[in-house]
Automatic annotation (TrEMBL):
UniProt name for this protein: Peroxisomal trans-2-enoyl-CoA reductase
Function description: Participates in chain elongation of fatty acids. Catalyzes the reduction of trans-2-enoyl-CoAs of varying chain lengths from 6:1 to 16:1, having maximum activity with 10:1 CoA. Has no 2,4-dienoyl-CoA reductase activity.
Annotated localization: Peroxisome
InterPro entries xrefs: NAD(P)-bd_dom_sf, Peroxisomal_t2-enoyl-CoA_red, SDR_fam
Organism of derivation: Hymenobacter jeollabukensis
Keywords: Fatty acid biosynthesis, Fatty acid metabolism, Lipid biosynthesis, Lipid metabolism, NADP, Oxidoreductase, Peroxisome, Phosphoprotein
Homology family: Belongs to the short-chain dehydrogenases/reductases (SDR) family.
Amino acid sequence: MATAPYAQPMLRDGALDGKTIIVTGGGTGLGRAMTTYFLQLGANVVISSRKLDVLEATAAELRTQTGGKVLAVQCDVRKYDEVEKLVARTIEEFGRIDVLVNNAAGNFISPTERLSNKAFDVIVDIVLKGSYNCTLAVGKHWIKEQQPGTILNIVTTYASVGSAFVVPSATAKAGVLALTRSLAVEWAKYGIRSVAIAPGPFPTEGAWSRLFPEPLASKLDPAASVPLKRVGSHQELANLAAFLVSDFASYINGEVVTIDGGEWLNGAGEFNKLELLTSDMWDMIEKTMRR
Ligand SMILES: CCCCCCC/C=C/C(=O)SCCNC(=O)CCNC(=O)[C@H](O)C(C)(C)COP(=O)(O)OP(=O)(O)OC[C@H]1O[C@@H](n2cnc3c(N)ncnc32)[C@H](O)[C@@H]1OP(=O)(O)O
Ligand SMILES: NC(=O)C1=CN([C@@H]2O[C@H](COP(=O)(O)OP(=O)(O)OC[C@H]3O[C@@H](n4cnc5c(N)ncnc54)[C@H](OP(=O)(O)O)[C@@H]3O)[C@@H](O)[C@H]2O)C=CC1
């Protein structure tokens, strides 16, 4: 079957030539998808997370698949000293950093009152502390070297509106969104852009195992609440990420781009649920109203 247009690579060859990009959580899921496309577009990529074996395996596969330069560095984003080492190792290998993608995250569904304080901490620490740790370490480097840069934060649609049953994640992602918009203004004078992507449902093992465990998975179709009636493809998210970190997006700063097939608006509109009405019902309703 032919690949759908939205699942095809978008940018021209070499669009990211000469750029060095750090992708936290780059060994799996959407981080891996972005890394693959960045390499195909000519960037050098450093992938980091806690599990070195996963990172090394991904790096080896992507070297073969793309012919690009990818370095695996173990780093727990919650620990500032490890983040500083990640920055130093990147400079040592590639001589520069052009882009930071704050993608690493932790999440699981739970009624909030069931959470221990440690469970709340672990999510906020990975998502919010992890993002500001990396942003601070890379930002300080750019400012000291008088070098421009781009920060891309992967948030989610509920960063703006909140969500029940993923409260630590919603709290932390809202903070990351605030970080994005605040630094877009404060660090613009240094030539540093801050942007974000708010994805809706994109199937990954990491997200699905924690957000759609059984018996939920067999009861709930994640595509059903999306007006376009499908989930996202990894390539279309990678296309958007590559554009936002490329020089073609040089005038985009402080923006959060939602990519969710219209899902978040679906819950918002007062009358959206009328989608359930059949044509016959509408005939009846119209007749009654006109009378
Ligand atoms: C699907 C449609 C789209 C909607 C948008 C979705 C938006 C966001 C999506 C995502 O972010 S998906 C990313 C998912 N990926 C990950 O979470 C990967 C990394 N995750 C992990 O490593 C673990 O899941 C972790 C729990 C977050 C961290 O693991 P770690 O080993 O560091 O911690 P633990 O020691 O296991 O746990 C710490 C603390 O948390 C409690 N806990 C763990 N799991 C649960 C649970 N399911 N329910 C309640 N509590 C949990 C655990 O018991 C510990 O607390 P204490 O027992 O010490 O009090
Ligand atoms: N998939 C989806 O539908 C959606 C995803 N998102 C966002 O997309 C991003 C990627 O998620 P996805 O690919 O689905 O899930 P994954 O679970 O595949 O990705 C999460 C990554 O974060 C890494 N990570 C977790 N904790 C740490 C830590 N302390 N230090 C460093 N790295 C860490 C994990 O690696 P390791 O365990 O080796 O540390 C893993 O590679 C996340 O920001 C998520 O919130 C947003 C909306 C929807």
